[in-house]
């Protein structure tokens, strides 16, 4: 951009005045001399200190930036530390995220859950299980998000004994799983081959109201373990409960019919999906029907 264009942009009435360049000697050299966004565009910590925006996609900020500030003796607020942890996790830098996490003066349920979910979401199931066990030893009360993450990690790792131990501890505490954690537990048992436990969780009296997520997850558990007929029965029961079926529900039941060789049932569900529910068939639906 030429000088004339630059001055024209700055003088435009649609742009707000920019603050002066940063000259704080305590900040990294890459930041000095640059202009920060107006205060309305960036969140400022309560202590009044400036902080750099942490990118969470594409590329990561310079590795070790938080530790660099600690070496200079600068203290970082919890918001900055949590943002740094989130940045490193989303950029796949797990070693740096662990360093940031270990530096937390106080590890809360949110920070522990962030570590468990980041490991589980990136396929590092063993690390997720380890972090969850440390979280349990810390005496923190586990919420639905943390439980769903660890059940997903156990499902990916086919760690039935660990997942069962977690579920048993929840039962012993008298806590009730929410729908998301309950569906994750059903999925875990289904992927680990324990369809009886999956069905038992689903059929618990008074545990939860009818939920499409729970029903679809249980149908998938039946189908994955060769119980095609039970999957069809539960799917039809879901319909009678008046739940609004979606494309995922029909993908699940069509896959169950395909695996069990239930040609007539599968064709009927496919016709119902398009006629009764006015749902457009996707490639996954056609693949199930063809196979």
Detailed description of the structure:
This protein is mostly helical and 291 residues long. The chain has three domains: 52-106, no CATH class; 118-207; 209-291. It contains 15 helices and no strands. The chain has helices at 3-11, 65-71, 78-90, 94-102, 109-121, 125-137, 144-157, 160-173, 179-191, 195-202, 212-224, 228-240, 247-260, 263-275, 283-290. The longest helix has 14 residues, at 144-157. The protein is elongated and about 60 Å long. The relative contact order is 0.05.
Given as residue ranges, the uncertain stretches (5+ residues, pLDDT < 50) are 5-28, 34-61
Q: Please state the overall shape, judged from the principal axes of the Cα atoms.
A: elongated
Radius of gyration (Å): 26 Å
| Quaternary structure annotation | single chain
How many alpha or pi helices? Answer: 15
Strand content: under 5%
Number of strands: 0
Largest sheet: none
Mean model confidence by pLDDT = 76
* Span of the ends, CA to CA: 58 Å
Structure class: mainly alpha
The total domain count is 3
Task: Give helix and strand order, one letter per element, not per position.
Answer: HHHHHHHHHHHHHHH
Summary keywords:
mainly alpha, 60% helix
Give the topology, please.
Blueprint: H1 3-11, H2 65-71, H3 78-90, H4 94-102, H5 109-121, H6 125-137, H7 144-157, H8 160-173, H9 179-191, H10 195-202, H11 212-224, H12 228-240, H13 247-260, H14 263-275, H15 283-290
